[in-house]
Specification:
mainly alpha; two-stranded antiparallel ribbon; 46% helix; 5% strand; elongated
């Protein structure tokens, strides 16, 4: 019986300038550093409009319901709500309340300082 599986095509991640393993995708190749990208752009006469811009690259973000903060918050809220009906979880509610009463001022201060920094520092 013949093997009908096709070999997986591996992407060549070798830097075209220095030959090292590249990790930065740009211009259809992988580069090891910004210097090699700039040298590649010089050698291939790439215009200013087409040059690699790492700050312009936008990653696809996860949906809001798949983010870790949402998941942890949802689990915590559900546990706190269910602790009212499940006697086994009463100590969790008590410990959570005591801990929150110790740190509420630090959370509030963090929001205040963060708001000041966000407002005054561009």
């Amino acid at each position: 019986m013949k093997n009908t599986k096709k070999p997986t095509e591996s992407i060549d991640k070798t830097d075209p300038i220095c030959g090292m393993k590249g990790t930065i995708p740009a211009h259809g190749h992988y580069f090891c550093s910004q210097h090699c990208i700039e040298k590649y752009e010089q050698q291939n006469h790439i215009s200013t409009n087409e040059k690699y811009c790492p700050s312009c690259h936008v990653d696809q973000k996860k949906a809001w319901y798949k983010q870790k903060l949402f998941i942890v918050t949802l689990i915590t809220i559900l546990t706190l709500i269910s602790s009212n009906f499940i006697p086994f979880l009463h100590p969790f509610t008590d410990a959570f309340y005591e801990y929150f009463m110790m740190i509420w001022w630090a959370i509030l201060l963090g929001f205040l300082i963060g708001g000041i920094i966000d407002h005054f520092i561009p």
